[in-house]
Amino acid sequence: MRIRFFLLLLVLGSGLQTTVCAQTSNERILAQLDKVIAQKEKYRNEREATIFQMKQHLNYATDPNEQYKICGTLFNLYLHYQADSACHYLRRKIHYNSLQPQPERNIEIIINRAEVAGVMGMYNEALEELQTLNPHQLDSLNQKYYYFTIRACYGWMADNTVDKSVKEKYLEKTGLYRDSLLEILPQSNNRQIILAEKLILEGHPDKAIPLLNKVLTSSLSMQDKAYVYYTLSLAYEAKKDMDMEIYYLAQTALTDLTSSTREYAALQKLARLVYLKGNPERAYTYVSCSMKDAVACNARLRFLEVTEFYPIIDKAYSDKKAQEKRLGWILMVSISSLAISLIVLAFYLYNGMKKLAFMRRDLSKTNNELVAVNKQLQQTGKIKEVYIARYLDRCVSYLDKLEQYRRSLEKLAMASRIEELFKAIRSEQFLREERKNFYNEFDKSFLELFPHFIRDFNNLLTEEGKIEPKPGEILNTELRIFALIRLGVTDANRIAHFLGYSLATVYNYRSKIRNRAKGDKENFEQEVMNL
Fold first, then answer.
1. pLDDT tens, residue by residue, 409-433
2. pLDDT tens, position by position, 338-367
3. DSSP string covering 422-471, please?
4. Is the pTM higher than 0.90?
5. Residue 257: CB partners within 8 Å, gap ≥ 6?
6. Most distant CA pair in the chain: distance in Å?
7. Cα separation of 363 and 368, whole Å?
């Protein structure tokens, strides 16, 4: 019974660890994707530079065959980037082919027309072009191209169809042309990817995943890599593993965006999943990026896909922003209440300090045996006197600043300068400056009380572990934490609250410094308190 219980705990622990790892990994890759989206203009410029170079080659080319090939390269560069420009270079291919006609090129041009029509959402026109060809009469290269294109076309039509019976009909056609591709393709990465896609649609994602992972170990183009990642996302979607589906959709989107592809499906699909995971801000960023790229590329299917759920994400994003605005008002009221509370507390402490001073003087006269304790109390009194005086002055100064701030907001409101009023309310500059000034006052007060603290503190540390403030700093974060400990504030919650850090951050700093101690690490903080 105990063995079974232990095995159950082991399985549950392993599952939990896998989930946590997947979520951590997803956050890392989604953060990387956010960065790539922010730098999208950089990747677009790289693609434009490649296109410009090809256009230069075309300008200098004189042979119609060479001109035809360069136009083919430009067609492929523009196909999933700017479909209208792809059409332009397709027309130039037709022109250069007419100078030295070749039957294989005529067929390639027909499939080119179908492919770009499919990207632009003109599915009937694409099929009309393809139906003029007999695939059994095509050479090997054009036959593969034909089956790839017609399979993609029927797949797009299925994605864009609401009627269930018509959708099934298009999916059946897609499957038939997929099978045709599998029959003619040699053993290659492309064949393995298509076979994996077929296994997923037939309900065998566990068989497809090893095939795709094996393909990933080989050398792949950016387009093929995106194809593998997206197919892996479909496999995990079939397994209902949302975390892994998100991971591979993010990998697909990274590949699409770094290669400056604008006609894609991964990012808008990822936006929907991120929204379901409770992150409307990130979902809004992804769906906005997808919509802009779909419009720029003139990819009608992708635009329609985005507009299906854009209003939902947009509303959630707007609601969250409104909530943050309300919280800002609440925070402002809370800070004002806290300031008043601090003033009351300061007066209370000041009176208590005066009483303590009288008691200390009386005790020093009557009890010589408590000299050591009395010295410590005197030092404590000195600390409190300095800090109370400084913080009373700080509180009065803070009230003056709040009054000035209130008056500036009142002036903006009276002048009906609503935009500037909201800008002033949203700004965190006031709080940041006050916090910075607060810590600066604390540092100066502390070093007035303990002028040799930095030197004495460093004497407790190893040579490589010594800490010195940077130029312009009085105390850095590590020194400030141990300054609080020297003052008797040892509770991590109080330190974290005082410094505005998380509890984990304070624990990490304390642990890191403790590991640099020369002597007994367990008694290190007690030695700091004795400085």
1. 777 778 777 777 777 677 677 777 8
2. 778 788 888 788 887 777 777 777 766 766
3. HHHHH--HHHHHHHHHHHHHHHHHHHHH-TTHHHHHHHTB-STT---PPT
4. no
5. 33, 36, 37, 40, 43, 267, 289
6. 118
7. 9
